[in-house]
């Protein structure tokens, strides 16, 4: 369900990513542009005090962002709007700074560079212009002038932010109230009534379905349906009927023999006890634990089971510690030395590496050698067969296309005959003919799949017209529509499954609501929740949560009355989606002042940061409105719409 707080957080995260990337890649075009009108025929998006922002400016930023992080097509409009807004704001700040006499000094710029690129000042000494330019290009992908322009803009924005938010604070009462909101907990016992669980109790009679159908008849339109005859070049059959002589396989092996050279390798399992980031005392305890597990292995313990139980390697833990075959150079030296020196079946002692302590078991070894032809013959055959079938399929599909282009009104049988004439009777074994059942545009075609090309052929052609070959998972197919059933009012017989599904769903929902009301009524009469729920075959579940938590996946705001209800009071029924919940408050957990003392500073900082963000955003809107009213800011709504919502223009 929609949560304004979580939505706000997500938007801040997304905007942070967008504006962060823009700030790294932004080129500030501050040279005044010719004052051509911002009409729909131009590429102008806005004019800020005589400085033009164009579609090209925004597109350049999108391209820079895309180089660092691909932008999903459905989000390009959103990104474009954020970039545009930031460009407008940058120009507005420049104008306002000029009016107020706010500047960024060279010293302030130098200090900022020192913070961002400390490597440009090794031991406090400047590396020189050439090295500095190389660092900027390598780290940010920018020229020095563009990089320093960005920094000046960033410093300028920070100065305005300090001016706007300097006096903003939050009161102790606000901090304490937020602490209570986050930390106060309530415990409940609840029973959930789920309509889906009651569906099996609904057994409609034919008369019930007929009455439902008559009452909702307009909802049961049957969309247009079509069927088609088809001719399929089946790839599996073509492969089955294709042979490759051993001489060709041997020739391939000889020409690619380097592919079948196997280096020294070893097949190992391991159990890892991670020590990364641990203190010396913690590492000592981890080593003791590893020694205990090693002792279990040495006394006949099942290595794979112990790995699943104790190993901290996420990549192999669930596979019983199996790392598969490893080559020299693939692991750290300490691990490699032990793995390649142990005999097959042997288990190592503790092996310490930069990751932690390992127990290693060798399952198999292979010395460097070249696999024989007989060993690799099956995989060579499969590779050559796949390639051969693909080539032959493309040749045959090209011929199919030529035949259809010659006449798209001939029969499927005529196309099949023409193909056999062109490629020989042996092709017949790889061709399949058939007829699809009636399907609507949203349904997959049995045996042929649900690709858009199949759908377009089925519903974009006239009856009797042949499609060009369409590639499917089974092979190339051509279709000829042979039946069209127009959209019509469905009879009860045609739509009975839909009618029954809708009837059961509606009646289950009614029954669930009724059971929830019955349960709530029983509790109000003094009956215990466990007893009342059992009578309705419902389970009772306990939960404790804060105002920012959730119950059964539902945000706690659905249960806010629980925080003010006395212990023992029944609440509900409360609808959550299609389900109903009835609950009893069992306890209130008040947060302690000691907890408040620990959290007070962080909560105050968060609230103050939010308040300052809101104040700076209000300043931004006020500055925009002021400049619009003074004629210093004009925006082409039409051009902006074309940029951010091209599908709606």
Mean pLDDT: 88
Order of strands across the biggest sheet?
16-3-20-19
- Any idea what the shape is? extended
Helix content: 40-55%
Helix/sheet category: alpha+beta
Give a brief rundown of this model:
This protein is an alpha+beta fold.
Describe what this molecule looks like in 3D.
Helix 2 crosses helix 3 and helix 3 (76-100) packs across helix 6. Strands 16-3-20-19 form a 4-stranded antiparallel sheet. It is built from 22 helices and 21 strands. The chain is an alpha+beta fold. Mean pLDDT is 88; it is low at 1-35.
Keywords, separated by commas or semicolons:
four-stranded antiparallel beta sheet, 50% helix
Write the layout of secondary structure elements.
Blueprint: H1 4-25, E1 44-48, E2 51-54, H2 55-68, H3 76-100, H4 106-116, H5 129-140, H6 144-165, H7 172-183, E3 185-193, H8 195-198, H9 206-215, E4 221-222, E5 225-234, H10 235-240, H11 246-255, E6 261-262, E7 265-274, H12 280-298, H13 303-310, E8 322-327, H14 333-341, E9 347-352, E10 356-366, E11 369-370, H15 373-406, H16 412-423, E12 431-435, H17 452-460, E13 470-471, E14 475-485, E15 488-489, H18 496-524, H19 529-535, E16 540-546, E17 550-551, E18 554-555, H20 561-564, E19 570-576, E20 579-589, H21 593-629, E21 633-635, H22 637-644
Antiparallel strand pairs: 1-2, 1-21, 3-16, 3-20, 4-15, 5-12, 5-14, 6-11, 7-8, 7-10, 9-10, 13-14, 17-18, 19-20
